[in-house]
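Entry:
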Amino acid sequence: MDIAVDKAANEYFRNRCHVGVSMAVVEAGHFHFYDYGNAIRGKAELPSPKRIYELASATKTFTATLAAQAVVDGRMSLDGDFRKDLPGDYSNLAWNGQPITLRTLVTHHSGMPRDIPDTDALFANKNAPDFNARMVALNQGFGRGQFLAALHNTVLRSAPGETQAYSNAGFLVIGLGLEKQYGEPFEELLRQYVTQPLGMTSTGFTLSSRERPLLVVGYDRYGRAAPYHPQNAGAAWGLYASTEDMAKYVRWQLDDGNPIVRLSHQLLMGDANDGEGMAWNLAEDRGQPIVWHGGGSFGMSSQVVLYPKRHEGFVLLANDACQGSEGALKAIAEAVHERDLPPPAEDSQAGR
């Protein structure tokens, strides 16, 4: 494994834009940690499993896990009218009478816009050098009250279930529904059902004075130190965590005997080769299921990759938002996973 990880990491760092990466391999319940590069560009300071990163959109898997908990508890349903779970009258969140549902929200088929406030104009030129600054400015002072007010005026862009379109706003809506159904803040639900039972002591939406020095510096695609995500990223992309904590999360996500995990990985849209579960992307690799989710913030990238049938999982956290970083992190996991597998049948045939 060490040789395979070193080889994949060396390939990753051929792109000089990358800064540092922390990785955990979970194999049959055992943890293996690897760290490469720099926690701060230009300083000879190796990352460590205790250093803290932004999870970015990998946060969505935690939100979906809580939603799966709500379904198992009978507080939510996959296909019921989700507007009934929201704190107020949101009759606007329907298309010709067809309402948003939990199934459509967790698979990005709800018709919700990408973000509230609307970021379409900014994403039309995502490579602009001032993209991060403009995103920060747009979200400045836009808290829960502003989101709820704007949600009343939101118009769906397609019929729920019809079209897949990535939506952070949809996961913030799930967070609102969970808060109403359980009568607790989202942060408390996360602590109660996930982080405390798993012993994840460095995972949350805010950092304590003890944790802040452990936060790595993130860098944008131009190599500049990047701002951290805005406070309103919340249930969509607002979590911080260490690799050490995420190894515990991955081990839990590999427990297919757990009804919450099993529901989270259930195929809800698409098919076994290209589908969506509760936030998770689903596919097959050599006839075996692969479950994954990545994330990217202004200056960090993340990837969680699970091979449930082999009881093997990976988490990779990087402090850069370079072009293609999420895919490059997934490629590390795939390369290490394949270290002791025979070549695919087609490759074997071609070699004869």
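Confidence is low (pLDDT under 50) at residues 347-352.
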